[in-house]
Amino acid sequence: MNARLPTFEELFGTGPTVRARAPGRVNLMGDHTDYNGGFVFPAGIPQETRVELAPAAGRRVAVWSAAFPEQAPVEYDLGREVRDGSWSDYVKGMTTVLAPFGLDDGFRARIESEVPVGSGLSSSAALEISLGRALREAFELPLPDVELALAGRRAENEFVGAPVGIMDQMACSLATPASAIFLDTRSLHYEPVPIPRDGALIVIDSGIEHRHASGGYAERRRECQEAAALLGVSELRDADSAILARTDLPATLVKRVRHVLSENERVLQTVRAFRAGDLGTAGALFAQSHASLRDDFEVSLPAIDKLVGMAARVQGVYGVRLTGGGFGGAVVALASARRVRAAADEVVRDYRQATGNRGTVVVPAA
């Protein structure tokens, strides 16, 4: 039996004055396009990160996380944030980037989250946005939702050192489990797009953790920057598909460019399919996207491919793909609303038996 978690009052001797929350996100289409100036199509998930907070005298910050219940609250002074590689870097990053907006008073905070860490479902962005919402309310900071998302991205890029695009923070700030958002990451124009009435999402955590701040994700971003420089464009969104026939580009970079250009087009097609309620077309686009992530962007893994293949064969599933940065994490499937629970359970059962990994159904929530 899990031990009871301490309350805010037990941790800090007083009650919270503000409560805020933000959902995790699953990307339905458009992976690795956001930092290339392209289009993305994320939705919120039911799992949330919740923050309780109260202002404190002086500039001292004390923050406790339910993910590490045995640890005492992390404490530091505003303006003296130091990165240490722990979960508190995301908090310190937010207080650093919010200082210009008027954050100059200390606070106490209690954080609790249902968003799986390392699953590619934006646990870090959910933390950034929920904390930012709590600070915005507690200290009346001038931070509209889009500005809050931009602050979250700066915290992750500049303080944590994770080279993420803007999609995660925008999704956690604006999307819901019932409605995805179509986002132009260059202009930040966004439009809500409801999940089709007869469709539903399945999200399965593969049990293979990935990290944004290091490894292959950062390498892919460098490759995209290199390709853009060789092509003479500021971002790969501006590249023309005709360049794929050029022989002066390294073959690896041609593959990366081909994924970004085709994935941008798939986002536009998927949005149209969702608006038309065309689940079959949307499912086929999911399958095409996974093939591109696997073959051209090379961010999948054999166990992920097995999970995708198993899910694609289950009755009621229209299409399935790797979602998020890759190298582990989660997959997302578009399924019949009538079969969604049974299909999700069947996929996870078969995956566990075939691989021994601890695959878990995240959506639909239990």
Question: Which helices and strands appear, and what pairs or packs with what?
Answer:
Layout: H1 8-12, E1 18-29, E2 39-55, E3 60-65, E4 74-77, H2 88-98, E5 107-113, H3 123-139, H4 145-160, H5 167-174, E6 179-184, E7 190-194, E8 199-205, H6 216-231, H7 251-276, H8 279-295, H9 302-312, E9 317-323, E10 330-336, H10 340-355, E11 360-363
Parallel strand pairs: 3-5
Antiparallel strand pairs: 1-2, 2-5, 2-6, 3-4, 6-7, 8-10, 8-11, 9-10
Helix pairs in contact: 2-3, 2-4, 3-4, 3-5, 4-5, 6-7, 7-8, 9-10
Describe this entry's structure for a reader.
The chain has 366 residues and is α+β, with helices and mostly antiparallel strands. The chain has 2 domains: 8-191, Ribosomal Protein S5, domain 2, CATH 3.30.230; 196-363, Alpha-Beta Plaits (2-Layer Sandwich). It contains 10 helices and 11 strands. The strands form 2 sheets. Strands 1, 2, 3, 4, 5, 6 and 7 form a 7-stranded mixed β-sheet that branches. A hairpin with a 6-residue loop joins strand 9 and strand 10. Helix 4 (145-160) runs antiparallel to helix 5. The mean pLDDT is 94.
Question: Whole-Å distance between the termini?
Answer: 18 Å
Strand content range = 15-25%
Helix content: 25-40%
CATH topology (level 3) name of the largest domain? Ribosomal Protein S5, domain 2
What gyration radius follows from the Cα positions, in whole Å? Answer: 21 Å
Number of domains: 2
- How can the largest sheet be summarized? 7 strands, mixed
Quick one: CATH class of the largest domain?
Answer: Alpha Beta
* CATH architectural type of the largest domain: 2-Layer Sandwich
Count of individual helical segments: 10
Broad structural category: alpha+beta
The count of DSSP E runs of length 2 or more, i.e. the number of strands, is 11
Compressed to H and E, one letter per element, the order equals: HEEEEHEHHHEEEHHHHEEHE
